[in-house]
Write a structure and sequence with these properties.
Length: about 240
Amino acid sequence: METNSQYIEDPKHILLVEDSPTQALMMQILLEGAGYEVTTHERAVDALDAINERLPDLVIVDFILPGMRGDEFAQRMKNNNVTRQIPILMLIAQEGDAIQIKALDSGTDSFLSKNEDQDILLMRIERMLSRSDSDEDSPRVNGQVFKRGRIRALLRRKFFQEENHRILKELKEKELEAVRARAAQEAAEAKNRLLEELERSHAELKVAKEIAEAAMQAVLIKPIKLIDLQKAVEQHCALT
């Protein structure tokens, strides 16, 4: 896939934080082939030190990292006035609402599955960078940066916050629906178990009733037989 980034004289600098050397190399080859300058780090702490020396145009960070995780790394960047405007793309290996919610809660501007198509990844990066005009591109008045660049940065951040809020809300609503569905299923299963128990109890009561009736019938029949036996004995005695 060709992007406009291939033809720029001053390539955008992307900082990649990935602990897998194989995946980091594959990502670096892909991004450099698209015209970006790429710096890689295996640990988040090392990446933070590198950012303090040179600010990247965009950061790509894996969620699962040794030591400091990707969400904590993103929180530190967003809590720093110097780095909070740098867009962050978080890569997640596990599909699940919980991981996505943690990624968004950290202040990450966007997230993407590590299994996503390469063209989608490049399009996402280009889109994020297109919204990331820095103050350096703003006109200067008497050596001071004109406020237009700051306004664009604030609008961009507001856009990402609203988009992340919407996605987070959808994920939480989806998770709530799943909880409600599980509760309804558990209630239905409990109801079925209760009905089965009632049916078993009813069957046991029916059997007990039949046994009681049979026993009562045997008790009523037994005296009659004794009386008949006594009459037969008396008749036998009279004949003799």
